[in-house]
Structures are given as C-alpha cells and as structure tokens.
Amino acid sequence: MTLLMAARHLLAILLLPFMVVVVIPRWVIRAWAMSDTRWQPGLVATTGYVAGAVIFLTGFAFFAWCIGLFARVGKGTLAPWDPTRRLVVTGPYRYVRNPMITGVLTMLVGESVTLGSRALAFWAATFFVINTIYFAILEEPGLERRFGDEYRRYKSSVPRWIPRRTPWENV
Predict the structure, then answer these.
(1) What is the DSSP letter of 84?
(2) Domain that includes residue 127, residue range
(3) Can you give the pLDDT at residue 10?
(4) Are 88 and 109 in contact (CB under 8 A)?
(5) Percent of the chain at pLDDT above 90?
(6) For residue range 81-118, what is the model confidence (pLDDT) as tens digits?
(7) How many domains does the chain have?
C-alpha cells in the first residue's frame, strides 16, 4: 500500500468510524452521566468488562478485515467521497452486504456491555437505524449506478444485515 493510500484510509477512518466509536460515545457518556447506568462493582461488573472487551475486539477485528478488503480488492476506502473502484464480494461480503457496519456496531455493543451503559446501547441502536436508512436511500442506489448488474445480482442474493448460511458464489 502506498503512503497516499494509507493516508486516504487513515483520514476516512478518523472521520467516520473513529467519530462513531470514540468521539460520540465519549460525548454520550458525559452528556447522560447523571441518568445512565453502570455496572456495580463485583462479579457482574467483572463479567461485563470481560464480555464487553471480547465483543469489542471481535467487532474491531471484523472491521479491520473489511478495511483490508476495501484497500486490496476494492482499491478504495470506506469513505463515500473516496469509494472503492471495484465491488467487494469476497470474505465476509459473501455472507452479508454490510459487514463493516456490523463490525462498527459490534464495537459499540462491546462498549455498552463493558460499561453497562444503557445510553451507549441507545447510541448503538440509533447508529443501526441511521445506517439502515442511509443504505436504503443513498448507498445502495449509488452502488447500482456505479456497478450496475453486478451489484444488482449481488444485492438480490446477499442480505443487507442477516448473514446467509452459505457463502455467495459470484458466477
């Protein structure tokens, strides 16, 4: 990967998922501190911390895998202003159309579980709703314009959010 490509990916990550997973949750925690929930010290809290960390790291690994595919296969970034040049239909994209969002959502759920925070759980749900609307109204029509029948075949065979049981074969 060239230095320019790495800089493009870093910018996209800092402006999008970093805001969603780091900046906004910090704001939510501060803004809702007086009414939000937290784990009480003890075994339940320890279990929550460990489970949340495992969930978060799973989401991060999934997200990183997708970023790598966008760079190597798609020759672009996750940013709408610097999209992939090729349709990515390999790896987790063979099972579900939006695994990168699934990775980010999983990180948000991990944060919520780690802290025992209902406010962060609400942010995770809000993030999911926003993306569902965004994908239906903007992202998918844009992909149809850019990739035509290739994307329409993919879209008709691979679900948006609930993974297929078997990998999709692009024939």
Answers:
(1) -
(2) 3-33+41-157
(3) 73
(4) no
(5) 79
(6) 888 999 999 999 999 999 999 999 999 999 999 999 99
(7) 1
Q: Kindly state whether residue 166 falls inside one of the protein's structural domains.
A: no
C-alpha distances in Å from residue 133, one per residue of 20, 53, 128, 139: 16, 29, 9, 9
Token code pair at residue 41: 């010290």
Q: Does 170 fall in a domain?
A: no
For the chain, the C-alpha Rg in angstroms (whole number) is 17
Residue 131 forms part of a structural domain: yes
Q: What is the pTM of this model?
A: 0.91
Amino acid at 107: M
Provide the 8-state DSSP code for 19: I
The tokens describing 38, both together, are 């937290």
Which is higher by pLDDT, 3 or 115? 115
Closest Cα partner for 160 from 110, 102, 108? 102
Question: Residue 85 corresponds to which tokens in the numbers above?
Answer: 């040049």
Within a domain: 163: no
Long-range contacts of 35-41 (CB under 8 A, 24+ apart): 35/119, 36/117, 36/118, 36/119, 36/120, 37/116, 37/117, 37/118, 37/119, 38/115, 38/116, 38/117, 39/115, 39/116
* Cβ-contact 170, 105 below 8 angstroms: no
